[in-house]
Amino acid sequence: MKRAQLILCLPAIAGFAATAGPAHADTATSMQIYGFGEADYIYDSKRLDPNWESAFRPSKIATPDGEFGSDGQSDVSVKQSRFGVSGSHPTDTDFGDVSFKFEFDLFGVGADEGQTTFRLRHAYGEWGPLLAGQTNSVFMDINVFPNVIDYWGPAGMVFLRTPQLRYTPYRTEHSHFAFAIERPSNDIDPGTIRELDPDLGNNIENDEKMPDFTMHYYTSDSWGHAQLAGILRRVGYDTLGTADNEPKGAQLGWGVNASGHLNVFDKDKLIAQVVHGDGIASYMNDGGVDLSAKGIPGAIEPEAVPLTGVVAYYDRTWNDSFTSSLGYSFTRVDNANLQEPSAFHEGQYASVNLLWTPTKDILIGGELLWGKRTNFDGATGDDVRFQFSVKYSWGKSFDI
Q1: Pairwise CA distance, residues 49 & 35, whole Å
Q2: Phi and psi dihedrals of 284, rounded to 5?
Q3: Among 132, 158, 286, 375, which residue's CB has the most CB atoms within a 10 Å radius?
Q4: pLDDT at residue 254 tops 60
Q5: In this predicted structure, what is the pLDDT of residue 93?
Q6: pLDDT band, residue 197 (cuts 50/70/90)
Q7: Distance from C-alpha of 187 to C-alpha of 192, rounded to nearest angstrom
């Protein structure tokens, strides 16, 4: 952390110290090493982008049919397998221990798309109210991720693990309020600008002058939990190879995410999330872009693209060994008029499963999934997937 940033944080941290627990400098560092090995057998009735055949993302469904080759494809993957270390380290301060977590899986993305390779999930430390590192975005609610075995999960869910500096000024047993500055990442679609001006359309790039600002309030009790989150961000662009990088500009991105679950019957959960905003696609589990273009030739301007996401799931516990999850989710984009006809407009996702846990460290189960992609021009593609997974978990806690 830069010195100026630390100085700004000190007054707020000092206020937290009055309610923080006592120091534990005389205790040992507590650690847990954990993980699991998992193999997934996957069969698709149609076909997804081959780089994404190990996860079910409606945005990767072929449109038109046959875009990625013949229908009916199988895959066996170990990409979900995971390894992690977590724990706490004592300090001689009134803030108490430093907690930490480092975790990775084998699901390659970005430059490693489609590969079985190391992928960082969490790498952070937390001391009192201050967290620094990579973990779940403050705009996200991990507690609405349903009990599914598909790696990617519902299309309409806010889901992003990102580098951040997070401050939690208020925390009780059941509630907390947190805000953060998070790494910006704009997904820009120049659309048909390439046809109007190829030199311009091919040279537009991200302009990320400011971090993203996120916050949420979370509360829980015996009935379940609820969270209300918000985000403000600058979604900017400029042009390479031109005088003063013109044209350039920025739009305000914003979003509101309401989520939670309700405990029903004995151990069941009714899960829901609704998110809406402009220029927030980078935070979504699947589909859309943050910034595109609208207007007519000679009067083109950028647009932070509006997006809506919904998740509705029911997690059922049949008995001590068997569980199921049933639900539906979608992401819908209000496309800018200069996006390509093939641009993503809507992704639908539904699934049902039956999972068997003979002991707490073994999970075996099958899942049936359906997805549909709709493009800006109305073209569609769909897929039905079956996944069978076996997972062996392990872990060991100790003091050093």
Answers
A1: 29
A2: -90, 155
A3: 286
A4: yes
A5: 85
A6: low
A7: 16
